[in-house]
User: Fold this.
Amino acid sequence: MLELKNVSKKYKNNEVLNNINLAINNGEIVSLLGPSGCGKTTLLNMILGLTEVSAGEIIYNNEVIQNKPMHKRDFNIVFQDYCLFPHLNAYENIIYGLKNLKKNPYDKKVTDLIELLELRPHLYKKIHELSGGQKQRVSIARTIAMEPKILLMDEPLSALDGVIKESIKDMIQKIAKTLNLTTIIVTHDPEEALTMADKVVVIENGKVAQFGTPDNIINEPKNKFVEQFILNQLKVKRNHIYQLFGASYGA
Assistant:
């Protein structure tokens, strides 16, 4: 279990996160949802160990880890811009980190991961030859090949569109559930959060506005912010789809 107890983050006089309390069970998919600037990426980076905690405790499996170096936490992250090495092919990117861990790149876990993410036909393509969805799958494979205890994802779908986005969303869920891998996903999109996650953390101005299942969030919003943020965002998306549909058909 990952626990955050009274976690806060300040930059000089600017309080970015205030008194965050969460308990995330092993194997759960949890979305950190909120508008830009609410503190969700800072929270992700504190869990990863990239950003220091100003106050409070981060506890993983009963061990206090907020002062533990990032490389000793055994967590790993997938970034929204893929961060792949352009001079290497897809397979070389996937196994890149294994040599440092002295792990066998031909291990069955790696080959099973490649099959699970449907990357076999693309292994020897250069990065510029891959589509956005294929690049994101390679990025996910590279991260999970390192066998992280927790998988962190920062806006993993933001650069993708339509059917590709839905495909990657399904694959993230499939990977997390197949491997029983605790997964924490930052997103500003309520639809992504509510359809991908077992639980959703709605963040408002550095505080947890609500933490619950998608059903709780939709049917029992704790305050006006939760209700309005989700409804307004879904309305914006719906209007955008209608505009595209109308443009396509000359409406």
Q: What stands out?
A: The first helix runs from residue 40 to 48.
